[in-house]
C-alpha cells in the first residue's frame, strides 16, 4: 500500500471517528429499495449529491457555452452590420465616379450641377430607407436633447428669444435616436 493511500485511509478513519453516533443516523429511515440494494444512508446521500452535482456542472457548462456563443455572435454581427449600409451606398459611389469622369470634359456648369443634385437625392433616399432623418432646427425652440448651442445671438424680435436662429451643422437621428446633434445659434 502506498503512502498516499495510507494517508487517505487515515483521513477517512479520522472523519468517521469525528462524527458522533447520534449524528450519523439520519432522521429519515432508509427506503426499502436502498436497504435491499445494501446501500447505507450515507452512501445514498452521497449518490444523490453526486447526481445533483453532475446536473449542476452540466447546466453550468451549457450556460457558459451559450454565453460564449452569443458573445461571439454579437461581435460578428457588429462587424457585419456596416456591410449592409456599404453595399447600399456603393451604387452612389459609382455614380460619383462617373460624374467625376464626366466633369473632366464638361463645358456646361448647369449639367454638372444637375448631375450632382441627382446623386445627392439618390444618396439621401437610400439613407432615409435605412432610418436616417435630418433634424429640423431652424425656428424651433432650443432643446438641449437634440441641439448643441454653439453661441447665442441678440435678436430684436422677442418671439425669437430662446429659439434657433441659425444652423451651423445639421443634426441627424437614426431610427429616432440622435446620432449627431445639430450645432445651432440661439436667439437671446
Describe the protein in words:
The chain is α+β, with helices and mostly antiparallel strands and 188 residues long. It folds into 2 domains: 29-130, GrpE nucleotide exchange factor, coiled-coil domain (Hemagglutinin Ectodomain, Chain B), CATH 3.90.20.20; 132-188, Roll (Nucleotide Exchange Factor Grpe, Chain A, domain 2). Helices cover 60% and strands 16% of the residues. The chain has helices spanning 3-18, 21-24, 32-37, 41-105, 109-129; strands spanning 132-135, 147-153, 164-169, 171-174, 177-180, 182-187. Strands 1-4-5 form a 3-stranded antiparallel β-sheet. It has a 3-stranded mixed β-sheet with strand order 2-6-3, with no helix packed on it. A hairpin with a 2-residue loop joins strand 4 (171-174) and strand 5 (177-180). The termini are far apart. The model is unreliable at 19-27 (pLDDT under 50).
Amino acid at each position: 500500500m502506498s503512502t498516499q493511500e495510507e494517508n487517505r485511509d487515515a483521513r477517512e478513519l479520522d472523519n468517521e471517528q469525528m462524527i458522533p453516533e447520534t449524528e450519523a443516523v439520519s432522521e429519515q429511515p432508509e427506503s426499502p429499495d436502498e436497504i435491499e440494494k445494501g446501500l447505507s444512508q450515507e452512501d445514498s446521500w452521497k449518490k444523490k449529491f453526486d447526481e445533483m452535482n453532475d446536473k449542476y456542472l452540466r447546466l453550468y457548462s451549457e450556460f457558459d457555452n451559450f454565453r460564449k456563443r452569443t458573445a461571439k455572435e454579437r461581435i460578428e454581427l457588429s462587424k457585419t452590420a456596416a456591410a449592409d449600409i456599404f453595399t447600399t451606398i456603393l451604387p452612389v459611389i459609382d455614380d460619383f465616379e462617373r460624374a467625376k469622369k464626366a466633369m473632366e470634359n464638361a463645358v456646361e456648369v448647369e449639367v454638372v450641377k444637375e448631375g450632382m443634385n441627382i446623386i445627392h437625392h439618390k444618396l439621401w433616399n437610400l439613407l432615409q430607407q435605412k432610418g436616417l432623418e435630418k433634424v429640423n432646427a431652424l425656428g424651433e425652440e432650443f432643446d438641449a436633447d437634440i441641439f448643441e448651442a454653439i453661441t447665442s445671438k441678440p435678436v430684436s424680435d422677442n418671439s425669437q428669444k430662446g429659439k434657433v436662429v441659425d444652423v451651423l451643422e445639421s443634426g441627424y437621428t437614426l431610427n429616432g435616436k440622435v446620432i449627431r446633434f445639430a450645432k445651432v445659434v440661439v436667439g437671446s
